[in-house]
Backbone:
């Protein structure tokens, strides 16, 4: 287990939209280099950069055409090496985004395998059926597009043919077993890509759709986990400081599969615990909220945190000493939380996320409360596009993102006259930005708040406020509601450490009682 994960706080960067250093309207790697001091000043010490590899960009880069080449719009491989080096000099680690489940349909492996006479090396690199009209049961497939007289399996969009790691229980001749030499070769090809970037200086990978690799019938994910354990063995032997973070949204499985961490996400298959604290509402097809918002952190939401706790503890208990559950403020696939939560509500949500165990992730722009914009789709983004807009730095042209003409930007910046910017937030001592900085400082200075330290629920397990939890010798309490909340606690004395929310004065922990003012968060040492 890489030691640096214990104190890691990640900053997710969507490279298209972070900072444009050369005025072409799109963010780039040099832009990230120029903003490393900002990221460090925020208190983040690790980055996750969304895919920055050569791609036709039908899914914003999750359709990789060449795993070993930085997309020209972001720079060159040398720029990536300079970024790794510059980040390391500032004590910042860098995870790239590895997309092992599928390539672009324009990847050479696929174009070769799609020929009527496929190159032997790539013949089985993707999952081909044995007939041009074969309907692959329970798997997405495409027919009629290739010379090769067969249909092929896709992993996500049509442009993303699934790489072939084999089937756990092959049921037909075209379904190869995992130990077929061609499936083993696919796994080795992915390891080769990992080695390529680790040798160039990156510190590991966020792994896209990590749970999707082995096909039927891998319900319990034993096949996919075995595959990842094989990859982890390579890391342990040759790159022991490299980290892999799964996009799986089932930490108990992902960590058994050798991942160091996995996110709890807003996935349909998840138990909904993460969703329940931040985004507990329904939307229509135009992304308008059409139901009550019952999110835990909403002032008038549903303040029963048990929905979150039961999902979280299921994973936490089963992974505690072997890996980490990652909580995120948001990501590039999810509607920004500022859409439904006000800054006062967000501050409490961040306080919670940044003081829980595991390795937290801050999505770029969430530190200033960037808004979700309802925009037409871009590069396969659909509703996600509105969470991918340019970072808002200052009051200059394009809010400081780029010197290009506004109509040349990758996506428009927030047109609102009060659009949050880093500059505005710097000048307002009560801003979210300052709150995020102070929360990350608190975490940095207290190992009890970092990844490994123990978590114990003191109050909230009965569905009532305040939610009180203990980490090492620190007791933390949060009251997202509009009314004061109090309960008895097993502590008689305490020393205040920190707190946020306007009602700080009303928060006490002593003589066996914890009393929390409305919309507040407090930390004490006991
Ligand atoms: C998950 C990624 O986060 C998402 O953006 C992408 O579209 C799919 N995987 C497919 O790679």
Residues:
């Amino acid at each position: 287990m890489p030691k640096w994960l214990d104190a890691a706080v990640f900053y997710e960067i969507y490279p298209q939209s972070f900072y444009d250093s050369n005025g072409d309207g799109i963010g780039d790697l040099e832009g990230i280099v120029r903003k490393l001091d900002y990221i460090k000043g925020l208190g983040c010490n690790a980055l996750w950069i969304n895919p920055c590899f050569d791609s036709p960009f039908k899914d914003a880069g999750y359709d990789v055409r060449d795993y070993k080449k930085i997309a020209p719009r972001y720079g060159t491989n040398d720029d990536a090496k300079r970024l790794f080096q510059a980040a390391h000099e500032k004590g910042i680690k860098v995870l790239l985004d590895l997309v092992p489940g599928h390539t672009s349909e324009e990847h050479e492996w696929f174009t070769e395998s799609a020929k009527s006479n496929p190159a032997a090396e790539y013949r089985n690199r993707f999952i081909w059926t044995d007939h041009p009209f074969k309907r692959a049961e329970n798997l997405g497939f495409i027919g009629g597009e290739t010379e090769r007289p067969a249909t092929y399996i896709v992993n996500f969009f049509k442009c993303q043919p699934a790489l072939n790691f084999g089937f756990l229980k092959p049921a037909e001749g075209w379904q190869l077993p995992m130990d077929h030499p061609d499936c083993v070769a696919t796994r080795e090809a992915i390891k080769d890509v990992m080695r390529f970037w680790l040798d160039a200086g990156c510190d590991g990978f966020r792994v896209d759709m990590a749970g999707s690799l082995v096909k039927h019938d891998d319900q319990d994910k034993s096949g996919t986990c075995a595959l990842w354990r094989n990859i982890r063995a390579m890391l342990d032997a040759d790159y022991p400081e490299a980290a892999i973070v799964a996009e799986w949204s089932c930490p108990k499985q992902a960590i058994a599969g050798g991942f160091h961490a996995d996110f709890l996400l807003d996935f349909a298959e998840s138990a909904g615990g993460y969703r329940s604290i931040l985004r507990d509402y329904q939307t229509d097809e135009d992304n308008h909220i059409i139901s009550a918002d019952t999110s835990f952190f909403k002032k008038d939401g549903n303040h029963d945190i048990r929905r979150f706790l039961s999902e979280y503890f299921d994973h936490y208990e089963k992974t505690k000493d072997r890996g980490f559950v990652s909580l995120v403020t948001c990501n590039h696939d999810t509607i920004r939380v500022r859409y439904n939560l006000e800054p006062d509500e967000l501050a409490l949500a961040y306080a919670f996320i940044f003081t829980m165990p595991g390795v937290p992730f801050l999505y770029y722009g969430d530190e200033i409360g960037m808004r979700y914009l309802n925009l037409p789709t871009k590069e396969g983004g659909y509703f996600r596009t509105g969470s991918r807009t340019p970072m808002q730095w200052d009051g200059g042209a394009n809010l400081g993102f780029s010197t290009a003409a506004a109509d040349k930007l990758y996506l428009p910046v927030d047109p609102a006259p009060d659009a949050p910017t880093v500059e505005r937030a710097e000048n307002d001592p009560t801003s979210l930005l300052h709150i995020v900085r102070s929360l990350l400082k608190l975490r940095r200075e207290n190992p009890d708040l970092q990844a490994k330290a123990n978590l114990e629920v003191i109050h909230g397990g009965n569905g009532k406020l305040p939610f009180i939890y203990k980490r090492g010798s620190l007791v933390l309490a949060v009251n997202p509601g509009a009314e004061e909340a109090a309960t008895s606690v097993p502590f008689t004395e305490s020393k205040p450490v920190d707190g946020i929310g306007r009602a700080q004065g009303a928060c006490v922990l002593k003589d066996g009682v914890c009393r929390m003012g409305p919309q507040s968060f407090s930390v004490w040492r006991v």
